[in-house]
Amino acid sequence: MNKLSRISTMIGTSIIALGSFQSCVDDDYDLSKDMNLVVNVGGGQLSVPGSSTELFSLEKLLDLDPESSIKAADQALADKYGLAVGDYLLVQSGDPTSSNFKIDPIHINLDGGAHAESTVSFPAIPADLPIPVNSVSVTLGAQSNLDEFNLGIGAFENIIDLHENNVTEEVVSLTHVATDINMTLFIQFTIPGYSELVTINEGFQINLGPNFEVELGANYPAGCRIVKEGNDNIVRFTSDVAVSNEGCELDLHVTGIDLKDTDVFDANHNFNFTNKIVTTGKLSLAVVAGGPAINMTIITNVGSASGEITSVSGIVNPVINPETFSFEINDIPDFLKEDGNTLDIANPQIYLTITNPTQAKVKVSIQLTPIIDGSAVAANKVDINDIVLVPGENKIVICRQDKNIATGYTVKEVGNLNNLIMTIPNRIEGEITASVVQETTTFALGTDYSVRAENEVIAPLAFGNNLSFTYSDTEEGWDTDLGKYDFNEARIEMEVSNTAPLNFNLEATPIYKTGGSRDGVKITIEKGAIAAGTLANPSVSQVVISLKGNGNSFTSTNSSSSLNGLDGIEYKLVTNNNEEVAGIPINEGQGMKFTEIRARLIGGVTVDLNEL
Predict the structure, then answer these.
(1) Do 360 and 414 belong to one domain?
(2) Quick check: 370 and 428 in contact, CB under 8 A?
(3) Tens digits of per-residue pLDDT, 513-549?
(4) Dihedral angle at the C-alpha atoms of 198, 202, 203, 208, nearest 10 degrees?
(5) Domain boundaries, position 156
(6) Confidence band (pLDDT; 50, 70, 90) for 470?
(7) Could you tell me if residue 170 is inside a domain?
(8) Half-sphere exposure (CA, 13 Å, Cβ side) for 259?
(9) Model pTM?
């Protein structure tokens, strides 16, 4: 028998105590033949001495299954969430989820464009004019001739065009790209009648400008170095290098392109970028006195190539389709799930540990929906917006208030989070939307990113001032003993000591063996308010219950309004919390104890001795 329901048996207990009256009857006589065996005992009032119950604890009331999502906090849980050992909390982990996404590499075509070309002519060298070797030269980018044997011409310019059509719109804008592009620069000579080598003199250079970032490739003349001069990236010859009279090749690996302040996308999201290369410096020919006139044609050219953009800096918007997640809430006491209950839990918490493997911030919104008996409770959905995930591990707690939160978590307050469990659901489902924050970031292309999330619901059972739930039960079977008696009015009085932070109001209705109600019979709760208390400061409340018929005496034909045949009581404990006890956790050691329980039968009890 439920311990709390034993209180309602005091009427039965009181009247059963009169069973000792049977010892006064001599079974050797059949008194029913000679006299009226219906008698009244007690006169104006019959009382039963006071009694008390043991503590009816919340542990016994909840009677939790070991697999229940509601737990009494052990020391570890208590320390983690700022609770006391024994405080109740709903704790349930959901399955980890992951969101996989990537942006594919962008293929790039490189066109070298038109070549740069110039022809210079050196006069014949007189036989009587001693001229040292390499004294005939041409300097690209020189302002004027030094003399007729050392000429100056303009710098050579080549235009490189990088392009690709229909680039994914997941790449919104660019400030820099990392690339994997191999290109070849050609320095070519046509010198009829000349069979010697050409010297590329120290200081000769190819200026790629500020945008192209390069390194030397597989094939290049000795003495070449990549130098940074101001903002420009330059291939420079740091010593004299003799090359074929047909020219040389220089392989470069383009590792990146600075696109700052450059709009490379047109209206159709085609990628287009051009870059100018400027070649300057001195070229020398090996000649001797008495040699013929020389015509020298110089050509610089960039070979066509292709490659990939492997990483971007800029604004990106990859498509992210996170998995939904859910929490199964198991083995909750039935009375906590009944319709009409409002579990105004003061500070439910959802703990999220989310790993963001990108260098971008990711903005997340979550919609949480309670599911009861397979149906979504749309009215109790909770939307959580603007959670920003920084690169790396993010530890976030979603809660109603920043209070008693596990250390190391960033707090996201959501005032209506308790809507999810106003009535405890069977399951909570979470639907996530995620997008990269639209600000400049670096994003590797072709990399499979996986945003992993682990989640846990923690809801300490500390209630707000809108708590409303009803615990109801019935105590039946009294008629086995009480069917032999008739009484018109009973009164039960008791003191209730309450250490739970819950206010209760007691309600009760009679149950008769034949079922249904009887006209004129009612139960009145004269005092039914049980005040909230705490373990340190129990409350003491007076409870008075009155059961009363309409005053008719018991007969075989006139009992429809008496209390004869009372088979039990249906009782309810209805919470009615207020701000004074809001936020105090319930604990397995809290409960109610009933003392000074007295039952009085007003007007005594009528007994039909024929039934004894």
Answers:
(1) yes
(2) yes
(3) 665 555 566 788 888 889 988 888 999 999 998 887 7
(4) 60
(5) 106-316
(6) confident
(7) yes
(8) 25
(9) 0.74
